[in-house]
Amino acid sequence: MSTPTVLAAYGTRNGSTAGIADMIVLALHAEGIHAEAGPARQAHEVTRYGAVVLGGALYSGQWHGDARRFARPAWTRTIAVQLLTDSRMRR
């Protein structure tokens, strides 16, 4: 059985949130966990990941648009269903 990969998705204007996502990936790698970082606007096939960490900068009290769009209820329902399905299959 292959180890699931974690996606650290982010929304950023100036790159600082991307840097934080990279640090999260490095920390996960140090623990032996497969992980990759990428812009939330480019994350289309999230069901291939075992988990998703989502980050976004705040601008005038609003979360970055790419992070907001990624976290829409349809995405979160898809992810939740996939995670539940995967966890039940591993038992």
Q: How many separate helices?
A: 3
| Coarse shape | globular
Q: On the 0-100 scale, what is the average pLDDT?
A: 82
> Count of DSSP E strands?
5
**Percent helix range:** 40-55%
CATH topology-level fold name of the domain at 1-62: Rossmann fold
CATH C-level class of the domain at 1-62: Alpha Beta
User: From the 3D coordinates, which CATH architecture of the domain at 1-62 would you assign?
Assistant: 3-Layer(aba) Sandwich
Give the strand order, joined by hyphens, for the main sheet.
Answer: 2-1-3
* Element-by-element helix/strand order: EHEEEEHH
Strand content: 25-35%
Radius of gyration using CA atoms only: 14 Å
Q: Give the end-to-end Cα distance, rounded to a whole number of Å.
A: 13 Å
* Largest sheet properties: 3 strands, parallel
Structural class based on helices, strands and sheet pairing: alpha/beta
Low confidence ranges:
none
Describe this structure in words.
- The protein has about 90 residues and is an alpha/beta fold.
- The protein has a domain at about 1-60: Rossmann fold (3-Layer(aba) Sandwich).
- The chain has 3 helices and 5 strands.
- The longest helix is centred in the last third of the chain and has 17 residues, at about 75-90.
- It is globular.
